[in-house]
């Protein structure tokens, strides 16, 4: 059994909560590490993108000056990330017109074939998905969770069946995330609250649309500080941007990891965290944008 330094009265600069977060983040983002070079097809003219029509093309563009990146961004092209050290950015373009913008800006442009095919074909498993599904956090098949490893020892009956986001089946949709969180609060009322903290932008403007915004609160409510003070709080705001699939899943799984460790009685760190702290997880901060991304609008 793993014993927290704090359970022995020793203060540690590297707290169990920090350790839990670092381990889970490492697992979730393991799939982002590339073992093989990307297959790139360099574009010499707009004719080279004709075969893609108006489908999304993921490109890598090498630049010499920051002004080149600014010009592209101002043109309306969707830049996904910028690597300043290596002097390139990744962007999504549609058709010959946007390819022409890049070429006229004196950029060296190449199609990232793997990523372009990934977006076009919407495979059921990405590298990141495979990393999550093979990790100790848990594995799932479409429509059914088959929990293994550290998760599911005690929470098996609290898992819900879900289909996942089309093309990204390891990630819960907005509705499935909410359903899973509500189930945890229903099954473990002394440890979990599913708190309505406000309305999304669409619901604020039209009560028939949009979503409520919730926070998953985790703490042992039957234990209160003896000094009359409030418990220290950790707040995580997840899925702020529409395409942030991983962050919402991370927050949900992190909460379930803590809860499972507490309920199982075999994890001193999770027990210490929930007995003496409050963990507040806003699982999906921007449900309106997230839903549009789930429906295929990559904005």
Give a description of the structure.
The protein is an alpha+beta fold and 299 residues long. 35% of the residues lie in helices and 20% in strands. It contains 10 helices and 11 strands. The chain has helices at residues 16-28, 66-74, 95-104, 113-121, 127-133, 174-187, 201-205, 245-264, 268-276, 287-294; strands at 40-42, 56-62, 78-83, 88-94, 108-112, 139-141, 144-146, 192-199, 212-218, 233-237, 278-282. The strands form 3 sheets. It has a 5-stranded antiparallel beta sheet. Helix 8 packs across helix 9 (268-276). It is elongated and about 70 Å long. The termini are far apart. The model is unreliable at 1-14, 30-35 and 122-153 (pLDDT under 50).
User: Order of SSEs, N→C?
Assistant: HEEHEEHEHHEEHEHEEHHEH
Q: Termini separation (Å)?
A: 46 Å
Q: State the strand order across the main sheet.
A: 1-5-2-4-3
Task: Note the total helix count.
Answer: 10
Average pLDDT, to the nearest integer? 79
Number of strands: 11
Helix content: 25-40%
| Largest sheet features | 5 strands, antiparallel
**Which structural class is indicated by helix and strand composition?**
alpha+beta
Q: Could you list the spans in which at least 5 consecutive residues all have pLDDT below 50?
A: 1-14, 30-35, 122-153
Gross geometry: elongated
Beta-strand percent range: 15-25%
Q: Give the assembly state of these chains.
A: single chain
Radius of gyration over all CA atoms, rounded: 22 Å
């Amino acid at each position: 059994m793993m014993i927290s330094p704090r359970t022995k009265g020793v203060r540690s600069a590297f707290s169990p909560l920090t350790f839990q977060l670092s381990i889970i983040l490492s697992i979730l983002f393991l799939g982002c590490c590339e073992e093989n070079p990307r297959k790139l097809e360099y574009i010499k003219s707009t004719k080279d993108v004709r075969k893609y029509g108006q489908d999304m093309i993921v490109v890598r563009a090498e630049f010499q000056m920051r002004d080149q990146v600014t010009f592209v961004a101002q043109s309306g092209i969707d830049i996904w990330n910028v690597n300043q050290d290596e002097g390139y950015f990744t962007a999504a373009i549609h058709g010959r017109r946007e390819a022409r913008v890049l070429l006229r800006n004196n950029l060296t442009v190449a199609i990232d074939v793997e990523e372009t095919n990934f977006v076009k074909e919407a495979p059921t498993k990405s590298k990141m998905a495979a990393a999550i599904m093979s990790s100790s956090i848990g594995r799932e098949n479409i429509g059914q969770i088959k929990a293994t490893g550290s998760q599911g020892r005690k929470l098996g009956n609290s898992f819900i069946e879900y289909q996942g986001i089309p093309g990204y089946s390891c990630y819960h949709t907005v509705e499935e995330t909410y359903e899973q969180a509500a189930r945890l609060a229903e099954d473990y009322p002394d440890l979990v609250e599913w708190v309505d903290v406000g309305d999304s932008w669409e619901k604020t403007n039209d009560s028939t649309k949009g979503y409520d915004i919730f926070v998953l609160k985790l703490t042992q409510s039957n234990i209160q500080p003896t000094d009359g003070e409030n418990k220290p709080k950790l707040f995580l705001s997840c899925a702020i941007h529409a395409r942030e699939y991983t962050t919402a899943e991370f927050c949900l799984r992190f909460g379930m990891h803590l809860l499972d460790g507490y309920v199982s009685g075999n994890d001193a760190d999770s027990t210490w965290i929930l007995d003496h702290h409050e963990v507040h997880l806003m699982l999906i901060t921007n449900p309106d944008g997230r839903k549009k991304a789930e429906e295929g609008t990559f904005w």
